[in-house]
Amino acid sequence: MTPLVIGIGNPERGDDGVGPFVVACLEQEHLPGGGTLCLQGDPAELLPAWEGWQRVIVVDACASGTEPGTIHRFNAATTALPEVFGAVSTHGFGLGAAIELARAIDCLPLALTVYGVEAESFDAGAPLSHPVKAAAETLVQEIMHMIGEATCTKLG
Amino acid sequence: MTKRTIKVDYLARVEGEGALHARIANGQVEHVELNIFEPPRYFEALLRGRDFREAPDITARICGICPVAYQMSAVHAMEAACGISLPQPLRDLRRLLYCGEWIQSHVLHVFMLHAPDFLGCDSVVEMAKTNAPLVQQALRMKKAGNAIIAAVGGREVHPINVKVGGFYRTPRRDEIAALRDEIAWSRDAAAEALQWAAGLDYPDFERDYQFVSLRAADEYPMNAGRIVSSRGLDIAGDAYEKHFAESHEPQSTALHSHLIADDSAYLVGPLARYALNFDCLPADVQAAARAAGLGPVCCNPYQSLLVRLVEVFYAFGEALRLVEAYAPPELAAIEVMPSEASGCWATEAPRGLLYHRYDIGADGLIREAKIVPPTSQNQPSIEDDLRGVIATNLALSDDALRQRCEQTIRNYDPCISCATHFLQLTLERDEKGAA
User: Which of A42, B7, B101, B290, by CA, is between 20 and 30 Å from B141?
Assistant: First the structure.
């Protein structure tokens, strides 16, 4: 059951680009199976995006007040995300709301892991901050390991 | 003296940041104001000195929900300045693109933001728990609208294929044909959704609106037409600024629009388009509207939900017609040379009339830009609605009245981010009125 990895965020807004950064790193690795895609911050696109995938990994920036670069892991298949991921919304949908909507209409993947990387700055045009870039590199390794295991399991 | 204050500090399920402050004294509505405190965005100043060909892509960034509307008003205004008009096949392609935007914007608003109000739910997530098939159907319709935008515009949000003079690339026939089946399914789904929405309980409230919209010779208006009103105004688009003006109000970073002749408020958007163009809708769309309980004019702002669904049903039908007739135009664009001129144009954004004017130099650089989005034009009307709604619902508890006021604002699908692009440095809050 190889996963789809979705990076959410805008690469032009500093650490908001951590999701797309992780996806770009994974794409360079030419991993067997699985899929990757980036969404620019409208998580309502998530539902059609993961249609047909049983295992999904989402990477997004967050601002929960912890140390920049902290990696938060959530098993969203079983539990709602904390409020910091946007349970309420304006015109768009927060990631948390999009996942809860999917849960309500029975459109969640069987396995859904959400990684939130604590951001330091969302400045326009800025690169990833040092702690977030380091966290992203750790995350890439972790996800590659997960994908490798999934591929081996599938082959075995 | 008894005083009662209704405050909503942060409006939910609208785009942008706004608040409401209403003061009632001795059973009379003393003061109502919609505070818009979304920061100003300076787009008009940002456009000065930029090449006239950049306007569609820069102004598209004003809104992630209705970027096509900004692109359409911008390209038409520039083409008017440069004295060109496009051949029919390119105009048809632009209309198809606009159908996609109306669909995705209206479906988002109707189901995700507005319908929960009528079902007593706090959000679409709560609504989905008891209406899962409906929400699934809505998401599929929205996806069909997004797919139209992606096929014609290059991507779903902030399309990149629109240019002054036409398109950078026209889609192949097979790319457009691939949309057909989902559009056909969605058209049926929209008709079903309209029937469902007809059964909702709408507050009994009507106002004598002064409707303003485009009116085209032979079609429901999107990209072209004269500006008409329900009180007899009938002007060319380039006379807009002779008849409509904007003013600063201290409570808002968005401008308020009014008619110059009598300083009156007016209404743009689905209710206005529908009332002024009902006869331009195809017979089956008119019949569906009537079956949903609508006459040719609807003055109940809560029933804007129904009218949006009529427009969704229409837009899917129109998209189907355009898709089935599509053949790639011979040229993706015609060359446009700049000249020292001024050009203006209004199109029908999902939320209503969207007016652009540009003054450009012979060097092709923009000297001056003016953009009037629908939410600015509707702001006085929103406040008038609120006065009426509060006055007729004084018996409600504060919580219920607050909820009703929020619902009233959401009737407009206000796009506050779109409206706050003008410099306004003072933000005044009336704290003294708090009980």
Answer: B290
